[in-house]
Amino acid sequence: MPLSERLVHFLEQQHVPFVTIPHARAYTAQEIAASIHVPGQEVAKTVIVQADGKLYMAVMPATRRADLVELKKALGVKKIRLATEAEFEGIFPECEVGAMPPFGNLYRIPVVVDESLKKDREIVFNAGSHTETVKMGFDEFVELVQPIFASFTERSV
Q1: pLDDT digits (tens, 9 = 90+) for 100-128
Q2: Residues whose CB is less than 8 angstroms from the CB of residue 24 and which lie 6 or more positions away in sequence, other chains included
Q3: Residues 97/86, Cβ–Cβ less than 8 Å
Q4: Are the C-beta atoms of 41 and 62 separated by less than 8 Å?
Q5: Region 21-25: what's the mean pLDDT?
Q6: For the residues 15-33, what does the mean pLDDT come to?
Q7: Which of 30, 37, 44, 128 could be cross-linked to 4 through a Cys-Cys bond (beta carbons 3.0 to 4.6 Å apart)?
Q8: CA torsion sign, 20 to 26 to 31 to 35?
Q9: Which H or E run contains 125?
Q10: Superfamily for 5-155?
Q11: Can you give the pLDDT at residue 2?
Q12: Structural domain boundaries of the chain?
């Protein structure tokens, strides 16, 4: 499956420079980082959570994992858990499962980004495919997505 047409159209419409990077089929952000030879800190992974019955997109470096207790506090919700694929399968129709881009605004899903990603000038992420990623400026990503920032991860690697 190719890159998300919705994402590519949006980035082009906003005149945001980006680069697509083809790579061997990879299912985890750490595999992508190794495949394209960039530090895991620069590869963002997207996790969908359900918080008080609403879906959120949590974005963090490949080298970290979500601490749901901290994310719950940051969002000010009572209940939080990882969403099941069945709960979000129809939301990203042009994306392979698990390869959705961190642009929740294109899918009407709020995005929360871990503070640790602010260290990077660029961000690399899945863009609908397990064989291609997109690299773009982090500041442009923030400007387009308007995410919530919070500290909700811990080192996993």
Answers
A1: 999 999 999 999 999 999 988 999 999 88
A2: 35, 131
A3: no
A4: yes
A5: 89
A6: 90
A7: 128
A8: negative
A9: strand 122-126
A10: YbaK/aminoacyl-tRNA synthetase-associated domain (3.90.960.10)
A11: 63
A12: 5-155
Q: Which residue has the tokens 């620069």?
A: 42
Query: Can you give the pLDDT at residue 98?
Result: 86
Q: What is the DSSP letter of 108?
A: T
Query: Which sign, positive or negative, has the C-alpha torsion 64, 28, 125, 145?
Result: negative
Global confidence as pTM: 0.92
Phi, psi of 106 (to 5 degrees): -75, -15
Cβ-proximal residues to 47 (8 Å cutoff; 6+ apart), any chain? 57, 58, 59, 60, 66, 82
* Gap between the Cα atoms of 104 and 126, Å rounded: 13
| Structure-token match 């080298």, residue found | 63
Query: Do 120 and 17 meet the contact criterion of CB atoms below 8 Å apart?
Result: no
Give the C-alpha distances (Å, rounded to integers) separating 21 from 47, 124, 127. Answer: 21, 9, 10
DSSP 35: H
11: confidence class by pLDDT, cuts 50, 70, 90? very high
Amino acid at 141: F
Percentage of the chain modeled with pLDDT above 90: 66
Q: Are β-strands 54-61 and 111-114 bridged in parallel, bridged antiparallel, or unpaired? A: parallel
Tokens 């642009």 locate to 103
